[in-house]
Every structure is written in structure tokens, then in C-alpha cells.
Amino acid sequence: MPGQKAQGGKIWMKIDLKKDAQSQGVSAQQIGDPAQSVAYAKEINDEDVTKLGTEKIDGTDTTYYRVSVDVAELPGGAQMRGQLGRTLPMHVWLDDDGRLRRRQLDMTIKALASASAEPGISASPEQVRMTMVMNYSDFGTEVNAEAPPASQVADMTDEAIRQGQQQS
Asked: Which of 15, 46, 85, 113 could bridge across to 123 with cysteines, CB 3.0–4.6 Å?
């Protein structure tokens, strides 16, 4: 999040998604394999999809769709259903080759109140609205990414696991 820092004032944070998934009873393969993370798409049928039109994404012609995803079909969906509800609205833009060019998820997440709330105040559910937009481009391009120096990274894995356990 812009302008915020992780524990110890570090500018990067990491979460071991495999460890977090295992703590929630989700297969680590589902987290580590991008094909598994969109496997639920096989369950989407015409009733779940609405064509909204066409748009250019980064100069590429695309067809824009709204998709209603059954949360139960997502990896770990049985547990996530309590937080997200029955369906997850997703918007996708596909190019003429059927490649995903943009994906937008609009979520309302039920979250527990902060554990640091004042004494005597109950931890009642709150809702957090979030929109996540991901653009995809440069298909087939070789990527060489470097991790930031360890001194700038806070490991938030245990905190993510704690929060997941509080919400389930």
C-alpha cells in the first residue's frame, strides 16, 4: 500500500503462500501452480458470463466480460465463502487470441475488528471493500527479477496465518 511500511519500517513484505495455504488446509500445489489458481474457470458456463462490449487495453482490442465466480470452486473456497459470500464478481478482458489482458476482482471481505481495539469493545465483523486490477502483457517475454535485499523485507507469513485463523 503506497506510503505504508511493514514491520520494523521495512518497505517490502513477504508471505510464504505455501505455508499459509497449508495452514488453511489448501493444497500447496494450488497456490504454486498458476493453472490451478484459475482451474475454476472450467466450471463457468454461459449463465455466469455477460458480454459487456469491447475495449482497448494497452493498445490491444479486447472483449470485456463480467463473470460471476462460484467461491466454492476457488482453491480453499469452502473457507473463503464465509468471508466473500457465494459469488465473486470478476471482470475480464480477452484479446482476439483468447488471452487474458486484464482481470478485475471486486470483493467485499468480512474481517474481524483489530485485536488492538480498546478493552471492553467487542471484536465485531467489519467489511473491507477492495478492487484489484491486474493487466497482462508481453506474453512470452523472458523475465529476470531480483528479490529485494533481505534487510528491507519483513516476513508477514505468521501474521497472515494468525489472521486467517481468526476469520475462519
From this structure: 113
